[in-house]
Write a structure and sequence with these properties.
binds NADPH dihydro-nicotinamide-adenine-dinucleotide phosphate, globular, alpha/beta, about 15% strand, about 400 residues
């Protein structure tokens, strides 16, 4: 039995992970679940799964959780506070950690899982964007296994030879073709972007996801973060990554080799495929996903991204080229700007404008220690907050320090 902890169990990736686990009770045991403050959802999961541990980062919500669970999970230890997530990620009974917290808030627990030498299923791309070198170093020195969950990176991983190592270039690999759906505004004229609503931005044509990543998909910042993630995970330079808009979201990414071969991974757009792949790797298990009927799909289209309308992608490419602490600044500004857009304090084009204003002053320097990352994260949030002209000090300003 493989002991699994799901960090971010109340979210979209978390729910898909529990769905896959439920199909294989003989193989996996859910040891721990954790989230931020959704006590009602976590209480349901605790009662259904009876895990050994459950945690909420928000202490007040954790009291609510205890009241909601009552005596219905007598063997579950309820934990509270951000430190509880790191504790869960390092538990001896846990072999495998699904890191599915959204944003910089997932950084410490993701690092804790790597340092504890776990099989780390990485959905929380922001932790790789912010602290990739530290995370990869922790994976190497603790002997952890890093498996990407982002469908594109999981696809690339599936197209690499078994000898590939995290963070290292693969001999014979020429470049990677990273696919993007283009998001809900792929065909919207530039002038119409100023009036799009958070609801429209979150209505992704192919994927059902959390609100932050949905907005990132609409601005194409998601692809920008994925570009940075791909460079770090697979030892690539930004010029080795070509971004292709592929509206059907069937080809999840491709790898081109020096002999002219191009390998691709295809599947229905459902996160349970990469989740099942990473849970069972190197074996294969049923994921519950509908099998692909290419005759029904009919055609697969590819187009270049529109860098004029989707400025976030250009900003992310520049941060990828700059490297060091620059992606930390980009990520921090993006999180604050997306939150402001979701709260209707900023319009859609304002997201890129805020990020641009924050990153143009630069972060300076390479990543030395976690403290450097946290300091630049805080600085980026503060700059973004000031730029937006903060009405109320939003939660998102706290970021990785939460
Ligand atoms: P959701 O918004 O659906 O869920 C986020 C989860 O993170 C929730 O469980 C939430 O808890 C928890 N969380 C948020 N803030 C904190 C915090 N401060 N401390 C502890 N837990 C916290 O996000 P998604 O599932 O969509 O995305 C999760 C991650 O996976 C993101 O990094 C995203 O980029 C990545 N990803 C997602 C994909 C998808 O299809 N959804 C695809 C590829 C990558 P609570 O409910 O209590 O607020």
């Amino acid at each position: 039995m493989i002991g699994v902890a799901v960090l971010g169990s109340t979210g979209s990736v978390g729910a898909s992970t529990l769905d896959v686990l439920a199909r294989h009770p003989e193989r996996f045991r859910l040891v721990a679940i954790a989230a931020h403050r959704n006590a009602a959802r976590l209480a349901q999961q605790v009662i259904e799964w009876q895990p050994a541990y459950a945690a909420l980062a928000d202490e007040r919500a954790a009291h609510e959780l205890a009241a909601l669970v009552g005596g219905r999970a007598p063997h579950t230890r309820l934990l509270a506070g951000p430190g509880a997530l790191e504790e869960i990620a390092s538990l001896a009974e846990v072999d495998c950690v699904m890191a599915a917290i959204v944003g910089a808030a997932g950084l410490r627990s993701t690092l804790a899982a790597a340092r504890a030498g776990k099989r780390l299923l990485l959905a929380n791309k922001e932790s790789m964007v912010m602290a990739g070198p530290l995370l990869l170093q922790a994976v190497r020195s603790a002997g952890a296994t890093l498996l990407p969950i982002d469908s594109e990176h999981n696809a690339i991983f599936q197209c690499l030879p078994p000898s590939a190592r995290p963070g290292e270039a693969t001999p014979g690999l020429k470049r990677v073709l990273l696919t993007a759906s283009g998001g809900p505004f792929r065909e919207l004229p530039g002038e119409a972007l100023a009036s799009v609503t958070p609801e429209a931005a979150c209505a992704h044509p192919n994927w059902v996801m959390g609100r932050k990543i949905s907005v990132d998909s609409a601005t194409l910042m998601n692809k920008g973060l994925e570009l940075i993630e791909a460079c770090l995970l697979f030892g690539l330079t930004p010029s080795q990554v070509q971004i292709l808009v592929h509206p059907q979201s069937i080809v999840h990414s491709l790898v081109e080799y020096v002999d002219g071969s191009v390998l691709a991974q295809l599947s229905a757009p459902d996160m349970r495929t990469p989740i099942a792949h990473a849970l069972a790797w190197p074996e294969r298990i049923d994921s519950g996903v509908q099998f692909l009927d290419l005759l029904k799909v009919g055609r697969l289209d590819f187009q270049p991204p529109d860098y004029q309308r989707f400025r976030c992608l250009t900003l992310a490419q520049a941060a990828a080229r700059a490297g060091g602490l620059q992606p930390v600044l980009l990520n921090a500004a993006n999180e604050v700007a997306v939150q402001a857009f979701l709260e209707r304090r900023l319009n859609f084009p304002g997201i890129a404008a805020v990020i641009e204003a924050v990153v143009e002053r630069g972060a300076g320097g390479a990543i030395g220690a976690l403290e450097d990352v946290l300091a630049v994260d805080a600085e980026g949030r503060q700059r973004a907050f000031e730029r937006i002209g903060g009405i109320t000090r939003s939660e998102s300003v706290r970021g990785a320090h939460a």
